[in-house]
Amino acid sequence: EAQVTQNPRYLITVTGKKLTVTCSQNMNHEYMSWYRQDPGLGLRQIYYSMNVEVTDKGDVPEGYKVSRKEKRNFPLILESPSPNQTSLYFCASSFGVGGYGYTFGSGTRLTVV
Amino acid sequence: KQEVTQIPAALSVPEGENLVLNCSFTDSAIYNLQWFRQDPGKGLTSLLLIQSSQREQTSGRLNASLDKSSGRSTLYIAASQPGDSATYLCAPQTGGFKTIFGAGTRLFVKA
Lengths: 113, 111
Fold this sequence. Notes:
Number of helices of chain A: 0
Order of helices and strands of chain B: EEEEEEEEEEE
Order of helices and strands of chain A: EEEEEEEEEEE
Helix content of chain B: under 10%
Strand content of chain A: over 45%
Mean pLDDT of chain B: 93
Distance between the termini of chain B: 41 Å
Number of strands of chain A: 11
Low-confidence stretches of chain A: none
Oligomer: heterodimer
Number of strands of chain B: 11
Number of helices of chain B: 0
Structural class of chain A: mainly beta
Radius of gyration of chain A: 13 Å
């Protein structure tokens, strides 16, 4: 089944403890992206990647890192999480710009205390 | 910078009604526009994708139209059902792999 898989689905952590949220797609998509969703603010793009080893900042990249060493994986890294990074995170992928839509993962609900 | 507005923000209708959700965007240089459905606390499910060269797309009871020059898209839902209750998001895709999402229309269909 074609899908984007995020792990974990739920995570509670403490301030400052490094964490990684994984994202993997099995559709050979070139483009992958991370979003966070907060009440009243909607979906905001954190980082995106146009291909292996090519990444760029979205609208809210502060406090996050990403890497794209393989085409299928695009992990989101929080080196020192803070409570304001408590949010619902989504990974998405697409073949690319143009006639291709996005496929989203099921989301990761992160709570930083 | 692309700005996306969805009207209304919330909508409550009795079952069986036909309804229209509106999406407007400021940058008309889009590659495509996608409509999504999101259930509370869940992921986004793609409903329809309209290419920039297309005027509309249909899937079952859903019909989405696109007027790129005026920066508007509408999602038409025929014969609404309680199972249609969800938040509907529109997302125009512009160059540079930027996709900006609207804040959504929260729909509640009463049985």
